[in-house]
Write a structure and sequence with these properties.
The complex is a heterodimer of chains A (about 200) and B (about 600). With about 200 residues, chain A is mainly α. Chain A folds into 2 domains: about 1-105, RNA polymerase sigma factor, region 2, helix turn helix motif (Rna Polymerase Sigma Factor, Chain: A, Orthogonal Bundle), CATH 1.10.1740; about 105-195, Orthogonal Bundle (Arc Repressor Mutant, subunit A), CATH 1.10.10.10. In chain A, about 70% of the residues lie in helices and about 0% in strands. Chain A is built from 8 helices and no strands. The radius of gyration of chain A is 18 Å and the shape is globular. Helices cover about 20% and strands about 35% of the residues of chain B. In chain B, the strands form 8 sheets. Chain B has a 7-stranded antiparallel β-sheet, covered by helices on one side. Chain B has a 7-stranded antiparallel β-sheet with strand order 16-17-18-22-21-20-19, sandwiched between helices. Chain B folds into 3 domains: about 40-90 and about 155-285, no CATH class; about 305-435, Jelly Rolls (Sandwich), CATH 2.60.120; about 455-595, Protein Transport Mog1p, Chain A (3-Layer(aba) Sandwich). The chains are: A mainly alpha (about 200), B alpha+beta (about 600).
């Protein structure tokens, strides 16, 4: 399901005119089912993992959302944004803690792929993905978030701009610059990896 | 990979394509965990798990103390078959002035004293049981059940295996009442209790507002061939609200039934996770047996109950603090395979967590970029990093952080707190003291009840001596001791050996009478007496909850208490339960005057 159709579904469920609200178990369960993958990818992408902790924080995101759901007073579109804002704090905190642990992890590319899709068999692509994953750590939290929303969650620039309360042009320029910097630093990162 | 194998630098389009291929999915373990998520069980009211709510509830329990055993109407309920809940015809209850006062008196912060970790020697009678041979096994389910059964003299009915998603927490039993309570907790950071109570004779459970259920909310269900009562929901009080309101959708689940001789009661307390529906709960209730098929507590890397188990998993030579903030105890350890890392959790939730792993020495410069407020300190003479993190968000609770290295292991302590909720706090010096206290001890999760040796531990930590009975009073058996600060108090409890009843002795070293406030007690319930040379008060009765849900003073409740000041201490001696029928003012005065 795409992001937009997900939001339409959530809108239907959270329609207050129908007497439904996010406080309802059914509505919240529906919200979870439709968004957990996005939230997990967002947390994983923003924090850099490890997967085990990204899963924990995804669970924690929904637990916190459940506890504070009566304080949520937004429309359907805001529901996903609300979840991501909860997740953001947790993910950034994990990212910071992970950095100070100075763990020299081997990137397990399998954990970055959706097993339900055609397996990525190209060795070079797998190597490139591993390098790229490590390079994401070099980006600032703000830039990394835009990259995650754009590519891992498949959001349009306009959606990202609305979510981050920025101008579309700024988002677009920032993402372009980030791609250029990733390309520019690629060789160095690759060499570091080989040392 | 070597330099000859370096792949070509991808262009921007290729990088975009690669980024689009990064589509991780959560593991099956995640899905399994989420099947027990809170909203699926409809238990947790959003604010019920909050500190404020818990404090309000704790205050109610402490002050009202209206156990079913002690209430005449409670006895009346129990005489009717399968009447586990007190039916009422309303769904909201005005908040009393006392409750409003308790609710508003939160949010203060205070320093937490450090207490030596005391690992008690198991009682010989416990160690003689086959299931309890090693100290770290004492908290195991098998040992606790065996011990409870040996004292109670009957076989406990148990679930065939631990309910999915739950971890055994404790068994509390009462030999006089012939009751036992098996409690499980959930291994998520938000806890939650799953309670199975059982006993002979009169049903022993409800108190205060928790006992009240709108009549239409009580459902009759069949547990095997027995008839029982099921309730989804409970009265809860939201911060800022002026009424207790009934919440059906997402509050607690309760189920009571009787097999003719023994009653059973299951309660899932918020914020418990709850994949369990009513029918599943009923099915689980019907499955209880005399001998479970699975008695061993399998090692769970997400919830290891001793340092030794965590060492077994990680192969690391772990250390654990020998000094902890008052009230903090080893809860569980968690093993992370990705970095061969162990987290030691003290208390459930994000309170005090210690990370240990083998890794590169710290780069303090890198740390300083993350911690806006930081300082290089020393732990055991070696450089260490102490910091307060940059705020991610103004809404986040925050934490203190200390990182140091010792003997090729990296250590980090995180102490989490939310200043807006108040409560005990640590500071830099006490974080360092905890770090320097780390030693080779095999701490393990223990029973909630503390042995008498803790009296000395608490006295040392709080810095004052309490008065003690020269010997255990005749007819009473020491049961527990607890301590808290702000103000500093130590409470001991004794269980009656023959009848059903308790004796509590609370002593506070304080200039305030905060916990000895008699303003709301009717003046005609207070008798002024002499305890030795000291003035004191003798009070019969306690606060109770009426059929309308309102709090009132009930002089018929089986409570007798003395309050007095002596040698700079505030003291309170309480006898309740059937023991209150057997002990009069003179007995209690004699107890009080015997204290040394």
């Amino acid at each position: 399901m795409t992001g937009n159709s997900t939001l339409r579904s959530i809108r239907r469920w959270f329609s207050k005119e129908n007497g439904d609200s996010i406080s309802k178990v059914e509505a919240f369960t529906f919200l979870y089912e439709k968004t957990y993958l996005m939230v997990f990818r967002y947390v994983y992408g923003l924090s850099g993992g490890p997967a085990q902790e990204a899963e924990d924080l995804t669970a924690e995101t929904y637990t916190r959302a459940w506890k504070t759901r009566l304080h949520f007073d937004g429309n359907e579109q805001a529901a996903l944004g609300w979840l991501l804002r909860i997740a953001r704090n947790l993910a950034i905190d994990l990212s910071r803690r992970r950095k100070i642990r100075d763990v020299d992890e081997e990137v397990n590319v399998e954990l970055l792929l959706d097993p339900s899709l055609t397996p990525e068999s190209d060795v070079i692509v797998r190597e490139q993905m591993a390098i790229l994953w490590k390079m994401l750590n070099t980006l600032s939290e703000e830039v990394r978030e835009m990259i995650v929303l754009r590519y891992m969650l498949g959001w349009q620039v306009k959606q990202i701009a609305e979510h981050l309360e920025m101008r579309e042009n700024n988002v677009s320029v920032t993402i372009r610059r980030a791609l250029k910097s990733l390309q520019r630093d690629w060789s160095q990162s690759q060499e570091n990896d080989n040392e | 990979m070597n330099k000859q194998n370096l792949s070509a630098v991808p262009d921007e389009n290729k990088i975009e394509e690669l980024l689009g291929k990064i589509q991780p999915v959560p593991s099956e373990n995640f899905h399994q965990k989420m099947r027990q998520a809170p909203w699926l069980g409809k238990q947790s009211h959003p604010d019920m798990s909050s500190y404020r709510f818990r404090m309000a509830l704790a205050a109610m329990v402490i002050v009202i103390l209206a156990t079913l055993a002690a209430t005449p109407q409670g006895r009346a309920w129990a005489q009717e078959v399968v009447q586990f809940f007190k039916r009422v015809n309303f769904t909201s209850i005005p908040v009393s002035p006392e409750e409003q006062e308790w609710m508003s008196a939160r949010g203060e912060t205070y320093d937490l004293p450090l207490v030596p970790v005391f690992i008690p020697t198991p009682a010989p009678e416990m160690m003689s049981l086959e299931e309890c041979q090693a100290p770290q096994n004492i908290h195991s389910y098998a040992c606790q059940v065996a011990y409870a059964e040996s004292k109670l003299g009957f076989d406990l009915k148990e679930f065939p295996k631990t309910p999915e998603g739950w971890i055994f927490k404790s068994i509390i039993f009462d030999t006089a009442l012939q009751t036992a309570t098996i409690t499980y907790t959930h291994y998520s950071e938000h806890g939650g209790d799953f309670v199975l109570k059982q006993g002979f004779g009169e049903f022993q459970n409800a108190y205060g507002i928790w006992s009240l259920v709108p009549a239409e909310k009580v459902e009759t269900v069949k547990i095997g061939s027995y008839t029982g009562e099921y309730v989804l929901g409970g009265f809860s009080l939201i911060q800022g609200d002026n009424e207790w309101r009934w919440y059906s959708e997402d509050s607690i689940q309760r189920l009571g039934w009787s097999d003719g001789s023994r009653w059973y009661y299951i309660e899932i307390l918020p914020p418990s996770p709850g994949h369990i529906t009513r029918d599943q709960l009923v099915e689980l209730a019907a499955s209880i047996v005399n001998s479970p098929t699975e008695v061993a507590d399998p090692l769970n890397p997400d919830s290891l109950t001793s340092i030794a188990d965590a060492e077994q998993y990680s192969k690391l030579d772990l250390k654990a603090p020998t000094l902890l903030p008052l009230g903090y105890e080893f809860s569980y350890a968690r093993y992370f395979s990705f970095n061969n890392e162990v987290h030691l959790h003290y208390n459930y939730g994000q309170d005090l967590v210690i990370y240990e792993w083998q890794g590169n020495p710290y780069n303090f410069d890198a740390l300083s970029k993350i911690y806006s407020d930081h300082e290089i300190v020393t732990v055991n003479g070696e450089p260490a990093f102490y910091g307060v993190p940059k705020a991610v968000s103004q809404y986040e609770s925050t934490y203190l952080f200390l990182a140091w290295r010792d003997d090729n292991l990296n250590y980090q302590i995180y102490f989490y707190f939310d200043p807006s909720w108040g409560g005990g706090l640590l500071d830099k010096s006490r974080m360092i003291t905890i770090a320097e206290s780390m030693g080779d001890i095999n701490d393990y999760k223990r029973n909630d009840l503390k042995p008498y040796e803790y009296v000395g531990v608490y006295e040392q930590s709080l810095g004052f001596q309490i008065k003690k009975f020269p010997m255990e009073p005749t007819g009473w058996s020491f049961a527990d001791v607890s301590a808290y600060t702000h103000p500093d108090c130590i409470s001991m409890s004794y269980a009656a050996m023959k009848e059903s009843g308790w004796l509590y002795l609370r002593q506070c070293n304080s200039n305030t009478d905060k916990y000895f406030d008699l303003r709301n007690v009717p003046s005609d319930a207070i008798e002024r007496i002499k305890i030795g040379k000291n003035n004191g008060q003798y009070i019969i009765g306690n606060f109770d909850t009426g059929d309308d849900g309102k709090t009132f003073w009930n002089s018929d409740l089986l409570y007798r208490r003395l309050r007095w000041q002596e040698d700079g201490l505030w003291l309170e001696l309480v006898i309740h339960g059937d023991s209150a029928l057997l002990h009069d003012k003179e007995d209690m005065t004699a107890y009080a005057e015997s204290l040394q």
